[in-house]
Amino acid sequence: MSGAGEEFQVVTRKKWMARKCLSRRNRHKSESDYLNDCPDVNVDHFQARLERLCGEMSQSDYFILSMDTLQQHLDMLKRPLERIVCLGLGPFTRTHQALHQAAFIMSAQRQHNIKEALYYDPVFRETEKELIQRLNGTIIAEDRAGRHEANVSTLYYLPHCPYALMHNLLWCNWSSESLANVFLISNSFEMLTLNRTLSKTRIPNDHIARITAHCTEAPLEDDYEHNNVFNDLSLHSFPSDKLPAVDDEVFWTRCAPLNVHEDELQTELNMEAEMAALSLGS
Ligand SMILES: C[S@@+](CC[C@H](N)C(=O)[O-])C[C@H]1O[C@@H](n2cnc3c(N)ncnc32)[C@H](O)[C@@H]1O
């Protein structure tokens, strides 16, 4: 594979962190400072790089197997794919994870000949928005915090996204007719539910915890040549014969949507508490 990461490696993340964080004054410098400091890319050059990467992606075993899995789920629910919604892709001109994920979803759009591919991430720069538009995508104008209705069969691509986005997506489509249109690639629901139970951050009865036993989850085996890009992702679909009966009021009564930042803050607070407990214990 050609060095898909070179464009944003003028100053590598490691070098940047080392340079900025050496002095006591800059100790608070973080990943987001690195992303803000990254110089803008040349859109024409980057488009050519992204096109090349899409070509390579569509030949990769990971992509081919993932598309086979998606096709099996579409066949099971007897519907063609009509739309793509991609949330939380990340700053794909600045991190290699987001770049390879961009190539994945853009290649899926081509493979299924999808006209409507919608994207939202609050971190997108103007150059990133322009690149998406050049590659036949549309930027969603406002932050709906994951509340995107599936009125046609839709592939939702939410790689490594905040829990609240998946919760709110389910919240918004909480009926067996709408869920039948949802094909969701995100972190594995089984793992999310297990991790939340273990770390005691589980919200009782939230939509992910509630649906996990009733959805079809297919792990997308990560044999991709770059690590930490496609790890822990699964395809989830929601055939109605696995869902509780429509008159099961307890199951079908919606709980509250989650605030994305509140949820992240809660997780951060829990992590801080765990770190404090660990350092006290050592
Ligand atoms: C952990 S990062 C994942 C980035 C990338 N997909 C990856 O795997 O490296 C989560 C992403 O969710 C995005 N995000 C946060 N709130 C969002 C919202 N309301 N709608 C869409 N994306 C959001 C963040 O900006 C960030 O890029």
Question: Could you please describe the fold and organization of this structure?
Answer:
- This is SRR1-like domain-containing protein.
- This protein has 282 residues and is an alpha/beta fold.
- 46% of the residues lie in helices and 11% in strands.
- The chain has one domain: 3-Layer(aba) Sandwich (Rossmann fold), CATH 3.40.50.
- It has a seven-stranded mixed β-sheet with strand order 3-2-1-4-5-7-6.
- Strand 1, helix 5 and strand 2 form a beta-alpha-beta unit.
- Helix 3 packs across helix 5.
- The longest helix is centred in the last third of the chain and has 22 residues.
- The protein is globular, with a radius of gyration of 20 Å.
- The N terminus and C terminus are likely disordered.
- S-adenosylmethionine (SAM) binds next to helix 5.
Element order: H for helix, E for strand = HHHHEHEHEEHHEHHEEHH
- For the CA atoms, what is the radius of gyration? 20 Å
Please state the second-level CATH architecture: 3-Layer(aba) Sandwich
The class by helix and strand makeup works out as alpha/beta
CATH fold topology: Rossmann fold
The pLDDT mean sits at 86
Reading side by side through the largest sheet, how are the strands ordered? Answer: 3-2-1-4-5-7-6
What is the share of helical residues?
40-55%
Largest sheet: 7 strands, mixed
